[in-house]
Amino acid sequence: MRIFVGDITTLNCDAIVNAANSSLLGGGGVDGAIHRVAGPKLVEECITIHGCETGDAKITLGYNLPAKHVIHTVGPIYSGDNSDPIKLASCYKRSLDVARENGLHSIAFSAISTGVYGYPLKAATEIAVNAVRKWLNENPDYDMDITFCCFSQRVADAYAEVLNM
Ligand code: ADP
């Protein structure tokens, strides 16, 4: 597991993980950035998928992105409810499951739900790292390279603390 500080749309890996909304038809934040760089074919493919539930993940091609695929996951809008951490952990697990089902071996995550969706950064980071660790432990036979893409130094510091780096 590694930390990258910068824009996820520059990463050349098998899949980048988009913090999408349930329509999958584009939005602001990282979603807007991914659609801008991928080009209009991405939304055309997304239209054929008919949305995604919170905690689930769906895959498309990456089009003009350096990444081959985009895995779109929908994080919870932070509410303080007990279901928030369960749904957020599910985003990481389902994204990794979808990556494996498609034979992918490198994946970069955005910090799902920590922007407009308002999840407190420290809690979200702990959930992200624990969910990825759990998946790696449950899939010891599979080679998966994991990057946590942090758009700001503040986010990177939170990951570094949780990863003990
Ligand atoms: P959400 O609605 O799930 O909160 P946001 O896109 O608002 O999604 O924010 C999720 C995280 O993505 C935030 O930490 C934000 O700083 C980060 N982010 C925004 N743009 C980019 C980008 N181009 N590359 C990587 N991360 C980004």
Short structural summary:
The chain is an alpha/beta fold. It contains five helices and six strands. Strands 1-6-5-2-4-3 form a six-stranded mixed beta sheet, sandwiched between helices.
Task: Please supply descriptive tags for the structure shown above.
single chain; 165 residues; alpha/beta; six-stranded mixed beta sheet; 5 helices; 6 strands; 40% helix; 19% strand; globular; binds adenosine-5'-diphosphate
Question: What does this molecule look like?
Answer:
The chain is of the alpha/beta class. Helix content is 40%, strand content 19%. It is built from five helices and six strands, in the order E-E-H-H-E-E-H-E-H-E-H. A hairpin with a 7-residue loop joins strand 3 and strand 4. Helix 3 crosses helix 4 and helix 4 crosses helix 5. The longest helix has 19 residues. It is globular, with a radius of gyration of 14 Å. 42% of the residues are buried. Adenosine-5'-diphosphate binds next to helix 1.
